[in-house]
Amino acid sequence: MNEDIFTWNNLLFGIYPYVCLSVFVIGSWLRFDREQYGWTSASSQLLSTAGMRWASNLFHIGVLAIFGGHFLGLLTPHSVFLMVMGDIQHQYMAIVLGSFFGVMALIGGGNLLIRRFSNRRVSVTSRASDKFVLGWIMATLILGLTTIPVSIGHAGHGDPRVVTAMAEWIQSIMYLYPNPAYLEGVDTIFKLHVFFGMTVFLIFPFTRLVHVWSAPFGYLARSYQIVRSKKLKYQSR
Amino acid sequence: MSHFLDRLKFFEKIKETFSNNHGIVTNEDRQWEDAYRNRWAHDKVVRSTHGVNCTGGCSWKIFVKNGLVAFEMQQTDYPRTREDLPDHEPRGCQRGASFSWYLYSPQRIKYPLIRGRLLNLYRAERKSGKDPVEAWAAIQADENKRKQYTAVRGLGGFVRANWEEVKEIVAAANVYTIKKYGPDRIFGFSPIPAMSQISYASGARYLSLIGGACGSFYDWYCDLPAASPQTWGEQTDVPESADWYNSTYIIVCGSSLPTTRTPDAHFVSEVRYKGAKVISMAPDYAEYCKASDLWMPVNPGSDTAAFLAMGHVALKEFYIDKQDPYFSEYARKYTDLPIQVMLRKHGDGYVSDRCLRASDLDGALGETNNPDWKTIVFDEKSKSFVVPNGSIGFRWGEEGKWNLLPKNAASQQEITAELSCIDSKDAVASVGFPHFEPGEGDLLYRNVPVRKLKLANGEEALVASVFDMQVAQYGIDRGLGGGNVTTNYKDANVAYTPAWAEKVTGVKAADIERTGREFAYNASKTHGKSMVIMGAAINHWYHNDMMYRGVMNLLHICGCVGQSGGGWAHYVGQEKLRPQAGWAPIAFALDWQRPPRHMNSTSFWYFHTDQWRYETLRGDDLTSPAGKGKYKGYSIADYNVAAVRMGWLPSAPHWNTNPLDLVSEAEKSGATDEAGIAQHVIGKLKDGSLDVAFADPDNPVNWPRNLFVWRANLIGSSSKGHEYFLKHLLGTQNGVLQESGAGSVNKLIKWHDEAPIGKLDLMVDINFRLNSTGAYSDIVLPTATWYEKNDLNTTDMHPFMHPLSEAVSPGWQSKSDWQIFKSLAETFSKLAEKHLGTRKDIVALPMQHDSPFEMAQPFGEVKDWKNGECDPVPGKTMPLLKVVERNFADTYKKYIAIGPLMTKIGNNVKGLDWNTEMEYDQLKVMNGTVKVPGVSFGMPSLEEDIKVCDSVLRMAPETCGEVAHKAWSALSKKTGIDHHHLYSARHEDKITFADIQVQPRKIITAPTWSGIESETVSYTSCYTNIHEHIPFRTLTGRAHFYQDHEWMLDFGEGFCVHKPPQNMHSFDKLSPSILAEKHIKLKWITPHSKWGIHSTYQDNLRMLTLFRGGPYVWISEADAKAAGIEDNDWVEAINHNGATVARAVVSQRISRGVAMMYHAQEKIVNVPGSNATGKRGGILNSVTRVVMKPTNMIGGYVQLAYSFNYYGTVGSNRDTEVIMRKVADKDIDWLERPLTPEREAQLNPPGIGKR
Fold this sequence. Notes:
The complex is a heterodimer.
Chain A: H1 8-34, H2 52-75, H3 78-84, H4 87-118, H5 120-125, H6 128-156, H7 161-174, H8 188-203, E1 225-228, H9 232-235
Chain B: H1 3-7, E1 14-18, E2 23-26, H2 33-40, E3 44-48, E4 60-65, E5 68-74, H3 94-97, E6 113-115, H4 116-127, H5 132-141, H6 143-150, E7 158-160, H7 163-180, E8 186-189, H8 197-210, E9 213-215, H9 227-232, E10 249-253, H10 257-260, H11 266-273, E11 277-282, E12 294-297, H12 303-320, H13 325-334, E13 340-346, E14 349-355, E15 377-379, E16 384-386, E17 427-434, E18 443-454, E19 460-465, H14 466-473, H15 498-505, H16 509-526, E20 530-535, H17 536-539, H18 544-557, E21 567-571, H19 580-587, E22 597-599, H20 601-608, H21 619-622, H22 636-645, H23 659-668, H24 674-687, E23 706-710, H25 714-718, H26 722-730, E24 762-767, H27 772-776, E25 779-782, E26 788-793, E27 800-806, H28 817-835, E28 838-845, E29 880-887, H29 891-895, H30 901-904, E30 907-909, E31 912-914, H31 917-927, H32 945-955, H33 961-975, H34 993-998, E32 1001-1002, H35 1023-1027, H36 1046-1050, H37 1072-1076, E33 1080-1085, H38 1101-1104, E34 1112-1116, H39 1117-1122, E35 1130-1135, E36 1138-1147, E37 1154-1156, E38 1217-1223, H40 1237-1241
Parallel strand pairs in B: 8-9, 8-23, 9-22, 10-11, 10-20, 11-12, 14-17, 20-21, 23-24, 24-25, 33-37, 34-36
Antiparallel strand pairs in B: 1-2, 3-4, 4-5, 6-7, 6-25, 13-14, 13-19, 15-16, 17-18, 18-19, 26-27, 27-32, 28-29, 30-31, 33-38, 34-37, 35-36, 35-38
Helix pairs in contact in B: 4-5, 4-6, 5-7, 7-28, 8-19, 8-28, 12-15, 12-16, 12-18, 15-16, 19-32, 23-24, 31-32
């Protein structure tokens, strides 16, 4: 047996991703089935609205955009990408959009974080998980933003290797053919960001984040009246 | 099956559409709906109610799910009323519906609690090998040990204890106290038996068996209207709420029906639809004012003047200007208006004296039995003075003539009692009438027509009818000349005209005149269907009896009392203990030994909390020049001491000696029987080696030592003079802002310069919620809630018996009160066997109303044996002295069985006796018998709560037709009238506990009460006095306008007079720095709140949520502005009694000059510290001090005779003033600091010393 298989790198970027994703999917499913009453965004807007319009919108738009950016930027197969733009272009686009939405989320999230801890009503009614998850996301965000100067440096030298490696790594995970070796040479700051990011998925089912699954898009095209049909099993009660 | 899988069918969710695609039908999962179904699903429904001194007494469904109470809802299965009467339902308000919160709330007491320091002390003593009683004695013997736990009462420090250990401590304390000081140093306070009758009975039975004293509550709450016994010899018999619907004219004052009579208020709304007029009189725009046709805003405390002015109008227009035939017939037959009163020379004229008696006249007009107690009328038919039937002299010692039939007792000829002699007068006398309105003279002379009469002793006397004097006293001019009378309503200089009343009350003269006229006119047309609904708001004033007599006068002038739809409707709490006669023997252990020790609580607290040391009110300030004035210079407390000595009022403790030792001593010196022991006691009283305890209340020998409080919130709510309780009785942190001294001016009481601190060795609270009383106790025992025990509940407002039922078993380690005291009795018995054994006790029993001793002191003359005015004779001039043998070790065995006296002596109520052998035998079968060998073996068992309920029901005439039959037979014999038709249809009825759990059951008509249950009329008070001619239990047998007792006349209260609120000098001793700050002076009014007291408690989260979530005081906009206060500011109310902190509610509905702090806002909810005292902000009673009225102490004189919760001193606290100031938010101190030795030592506010 190859002794090298049990390295930190393998553990964190070969096994841990599957732990996170499994917990994320199965946990969400279980919680949705078993804990319908806890399936909530746990909004605190009723308790205090001061500054919420700005902070909450900045945060949500920023975070969703970044998520979308990561999703498209990293999961699009390299060959498909090259049909649209070059690697360096790709990287600059990531830097610009990431910075823009990252700062947006930082301002919004920062305000929300301050509010969560300093507004007495919000603070005492918060669960520990509410405070923790917001703090964790903000930490992930800040780590992500910290990668930008490094990334600019790489781009300045015309070196897209890191971004490409990251994308290849994520895709290897997704293809169920994990190759953590992609990340071996990557700067620590990227690894840290990746670890924090993966952990968001791990804690996802145990927190208010589950409300992401239930974004009420249905309301955009909802009928005026919805009638639920009787089912036999309920009639017999 | 899976919510997630269902979601996967997103695209086939829509099954069909309708309305042009505006609607869709889906097949989504509907399981979530079960959540709402489950919210209301339940396993069983049990009938119970709330034992909270709520007049509602509503029947509730308690819904139980998974062994827990889920929620409650109103029952709707009351039996029908009558065809023309609205139903009782729905009964039950939002407060009742919020009760289930308590069961599982943080307030719930789950385990026995004990002050940690006390437990440590006790365990240390026990560890050193002492037995429980010795251990307790060791703690008490060491002042420092005792102080360790007494000085921190109210400061937390409880630890969880186990039942066995706390029971042992309580029992040990009881045994020690009995042995060392006497059983009368153990005191129990529990109010309002009607609200949970078995629970009340539990503690009372235990205390009565061991010789402890049970304190009254009705008088202490100041809900007891002293005027009711004064006028009728009856305490609080009132109409059921359904009778409001029979009225056609209603005045409401001092009782906010929608707020405090919520489930009954609908009857008033409904009768308005029927055409009745409703008038309201209140100083604030109270909730009931908006539902009335006219609001008369009245100056606080001036209601008497308004009612007397209405009486002035009614009397003038319906008796003088023309004679209304219904009114005058009523007045002749049922009131004392025709009774002849002697006049006594006073100055240039006369004053009214006592009623003329048969014994004053030649040959006593043929009366040989009690001629001193038979009053006289002038008969228009025979043109002579005659003795009519019905006076008290006929009640005792003879039979058949104690009735209100208009007959000459001697000949049984029909008579027509004359109201006025104005057309055949012998002379006109100038009679002085006491007057108390400042600046108008203290004796107003008015001309009265009189007859001259030769007395048996040869003297000539002037006599006048009560009517002729009453008309003069109302200031009505009858053409006899003289001053102080008028024919003109607009004459503001003559007392009791509407114009004069406007001056005093602020109510428009035209409104008073119109209301008085309409009230009388309506009563004349309907034969008495005019009603006054009244309550605590006017009854809490110092001169409450004057206010009530003012109302009663108007009602009697108009013939309303005893008529359906008419009369007084006084509501304060859940007074009507319907099965009283069946309950009393169990509650006071009359089945084992008689008499029990009863105590009037007002006097008890007044002395033992040392409020007397601070008394600013002087007896001499209250008296009238028309009195004999023998007691000049007596303080209020002196009057009470005299009253105790003369056998008028009870006292606990009795004397400055252990009564057990007193008997032993008497027996040692040769006494062999009760009379001998009594002689020994009298001898010692005479030579001064024995004296009543109240003559030296601060001597440690006379302190109360053990206090049980159950079903009550004594400290948090009803402790008038709250801070004095804390200071002297409990000996802990207090806010009294003065040193005592004002009360040192006494003639009969020993003064100690240094005031006693911490009189109680042990305070035990039994409750299901940890309220302010528990917080100050040493031991708190967890009891069952109203949904966890079996009990009985009745009310004034409807005639039904209700159960409290055990819907779920008592939570955590709680037990029902009956079981708590049962097990305490068991522990006590074990300890008592070694330390007490069998001892003889001597009980001093006052001359009680409804016993032959109510005729102890003829003519209402006061003779004090201590002053050598007479000999001390038990039952005549001093209390009866009764020896009771107690085998203390048998306490438990007696507790669990109905004792043998029920068959040997039988049962009685209100002076009627009957035997209970049949019921006793039935109970043996129903309950089973006691199997424990010993004194109670084979007797009917009281081991389980339901058995106690059934025993009460079986022995009471209200719930057992056979008993009603026996009681009515006894009364029929006394009156000579056959009353059996009143109950005959229900002779065979027997109501059991199981019956009332099925449906509310209407009671059977019983002679305990003056109203009847019938298909034709609603229950109303005094109905049988009028319609069955059963006398009122008064001197004349009639309703009294006039009181002829010497002290009544001393205090100018022979006739009802207006007396303004008393000046309590509340700021005299306040520090100048407090007075220097911006403030405003306000009257302190403490009415019943909407979201608390009498229906639920204020600390109920659901109710707190509805308002400010903590203590609050209402003030007017103008006053708030003057003091710089804005709505919701913190404010502090201060006077020399203490201080309380609350939030201000600034409202237009409050009139200027008044602060209203609703009753019973818990000290434990959101109360910060007070800057004035440096102590916890306090409660409504932190700024009050109770004051007593000497006239309420009178005894041994028919209706003016003591009986438990019937007559006696009332705990008046309304004539209080405070200064109110704003407290800035930054200055609020929550006192949330650790207890340091310095803080612990600083019991008093800064600068207050030991006096």
